[in-house]
Amino acid sequence: MTSLSDHPHLYVYFLELLRASLWLLILSVVFIPLEMLFPLHKERTFRATTLSDLGFYFVSTFLPPFVLLIPLTVAAYLAFKIVPGGWRAEVASWPVWVRGLAAFVVADLGFYWGHRWTHQFPLLWRFHSVHHDPKHVYFLISARAHPVDNAFIRLCGLIPIYIIGLGAPQTVQGTMIATLLMLLVTFWGFFIHANVRWRFGPFEWLIATPAFHLWHHTLSGPRDRNFASMLPCWDWLFGTSYLPDELPKDYGIDDPLPQTVLGQMVYPFLPPSPRAGERPPIQSQASEARTELTNEQEQRA
User: Fold this and answer.
1) 100: CB partners within 8 A, 6+ apart
2) Contact partners, residue 225, CB within 8 Å, separation at least 6
3) In terms of Cα–Cα distance, which of 72, 32, 42 is closest to 178?
4) Is the entire prediction scored with pTM above 0.85?
5) Do 123 and 197 touch, CB atoms closer than 8 A?
């Protein structure tokens, strides 16, 4: 009689499944009570879409690493060949906490632009729209994303820290920094999607919160805002911040998508409909204000 230990690949997959299930249990223990006690929108904990949300959770656990493997390997190789050895030695001499902090800032800037590009370019939007399709946003929606979209945004954050040498995978410390960074960003992703009505006062200008990110999912409010994963300063700098006193009333996108996991996995690869992938051009807050002022002046005239 054979066991899992006789099949190393199956044993690895089993351990990964066990890890993902344990992580899901921890997330549920943390966020389900919070969303029941402090809900922004009162919804049932278990809904018709819960099973598909769980399906996406496990898809997002297993598939993105395969999509990331080749690009990250190429990036690590190019970084090793292109970046001068003196610079790598200099970075390696920094204290771990300095390298970790620098990697956090650089990666978060990369995540910002990767996320913004998925709204700006129609092809990328077809994959990213899967994440914006839900009409109810709660903690599990963080994992409801197409693997290609998930991998693209991660690449935009990880490749810069590999090239700079802050997260070099050929060293133990570099691997540890990249791993801890992804763990932090992943957990924070579940937090900022949580269906809670909490506000954090001035801290909302320092770090992304549920109020900050829930506006990113709005259907009827200003679109294409609040792209940052952790640091809202990127949205201030590039004119995409939106954080009023009130909270969003609805979520979703204009064009409906297939409602099964398989349907949404296949959808981005199908020929687009006439409206598919359309997004309004991203404007800065200043340009929006000028447009509104011009419209008001024309109406008065």
Assistant:
1) 177, 180, 181
2) 215, 216, 235, 240, 241, 242
3) 72
4) no
5) no
Task: Give the pLDDT band (50/70/90) at residue 100.
Answer: confident
Backbone dihedral region for residue 162 (phi beyond 0: left; psi -120 to 50: alpha; all else: beta): alpha
Cα–Cα nearest to 117, from 298, 282, 245, 290? 282
Tokens 């954080």 map to which residue?
Answer: 243
Alpha helices by DSSP H, listed for the chain, are: 8-37, 50-82, 85-93, 96-120, 122-132, 147-164, 172-192, 210-214, 233-237, 261-266, 285-300
- pLDDT tens-digit profile of 197-217? 999 999 999 999 999 999 999
**Exposure of 212 by Cβ count < 10 A (0-12 exposed, 13-18 middle, 19+ buried)?**
buried
Residue 289's pLDDT is 44
150 Cβ contact partners less than 8 Å away, ≥ 6 residues apart: 60, 63, 64, 67
Residue 251 has φ and ψ, to the nearest 5°, of -135, 165
- Residue 283 pLDDT exceeds 70: no
Average pLDDT for the chain: 84
Which of 268, 282, 100, 119 has the alpha carbon at shortest distance from 184?
100
pLDDT band at 269 (very low <50, low <70, confident <90, very high): very high
Residue 25 to residue 19: CA distance in whole angstroms = 10
Going by C-alpha positions, the residue among 213, 238, 68 that lies closest to residue 154 is 68
> Which tokens hold the place of 167?
């997260």
Give the position of tokens 């200099």. 90
Neighbours of 122 (CB within 10 A): 13
Report the largest interatomic distance among the alpha carbons of the chain, rounded to a whole angstrom: 86
Given a contact cutoff of 8 angstroms between Cβ atoms, the answer to whether 231 and 185 are in contact is: no
Per DSSP, helices labelled H in 83-95 are 85-93
